[in-house]
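Most newcomers find our protein records easier to grasp once they have seen one. A learned vocabulary of local backbone shapes supplies the integers on the structure line. Here is such a record, shown just as it appears in the course material:
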Amino acid sequence: MSSLTQYFERKHADLPRPRYNSGDRVSGRWNGIPFVGSVVRDTKPTVLVHSDLPVQFSGNVHYVLSVKQSDVTRLQVIE
């Protein structure tokens, strides 16, 4: 019997690999507003990001942002 890792690799072999993994720290701009947060999900055209601070836009407060992949950059870890 193969391991679960091998099973899921074979099961999802035809799907594109995501650029960002869940939990990756990213920064970027959403509607011209800078943000820093964690990736929730990476679907091909967009990245769903949970912002560290709430973002107010058009009178509404947003905690989860849907951002284009080109508008997001991974934060560098300094050790």
Observations:
- The beta strands are 25-30, 33-42, 46-57, 60-68, 72-74.
- The helical segments are 4-11.
